[in-house]
Design goal:
Layout lengths: L1 E2 L2 E2 L6 H16 L3 H4 L9 E4 L4 E2 L4 H24 L11 H16 L3 E16 L6 E15 L2 E18 L4 E8 L4
Length: 186
């Protein structure tokens, strides 16, 4: 409705407000992960290629979910290492990977140290996607700076290009990292 060239907003009914909120939520959920993370300095920048996955193709929705959850796992790993909080790992890691990183957090905590990861980006390739969809194997090549800290003081820093194999398994509503192992190249 207009009044002399101006739009007048009519008060929305509760049902219309709910519908508008749902529409906004769906619109935000459909944005690419890199756009949602653009203003988050801890966000992990990653690309994924599933064109060579065997024995089956990866659906686009699965590819995006894996990329989102794998990137989130790296964010949480960085947080766990910098804050010496192994409990943070539970949201993204299970099994061997969670045990290994929990031990790493506990060891550095006992030494009075912490680690800061400065993540420069990941190039992820899907190598294997099981027929029944219960596991997906990733090959990840990434740039990382690792800073060892004693309190707020950096005592050692190194930059590296690393290669990892990751095995993810689906849980109730996300993919979790079960295995994450560094390998010397592919």
């Amino acid at each position: 409705m207009t009044v002399r060239g101006f739009y007048v907003l009519m008060p929305l009914r509760p049902v219309a407000l709910i519908a508008l909120a749902l529409l906004l939520a769906f619109a935000l959920a459909s944005l690419p992960p890199w756009l949602m993370a653009a203003d988050n300095p801890a966000a992990v920048k990653a690309t994924i290629d599933s064109s060579r996955a065997t024995p089956r193709q990866v659906e686009e929705a699965t590819e995006q979910a894996v990329l989102r959850d794998y990137s989130r796992a790296w964010q949480l790993l960085a947080q766990a290492m910098s804050e010496n909080r192994a409990d943070v790992l539970n949201a993204a890691f299970v099994g061997i990977a969670r045990d290994k990183f929990t031990q790493a957090v506990n060891e550095q905590k006992a030494e009075g140290l912490s680690r800061r990861y400065v993540d420069r980006g990941h190039k992820v390739d899907v190598a294997f996607y099981s027929v029944e969809g219960s596991a997906i194997q990733l090959r990840d090549t990434f740039q990382l700076e690792i800073q060892w800290l004693d309190g707020d003081k950096v005592v050692h820093s190194e930059q590296a290009t690393l290669h990892c194999l990751a095995l993810l398994t689906p849980t109730e509503n996300s993919w979790k990292v079960r295995v994450l192992e560094s390998v010397p190249g592919f």
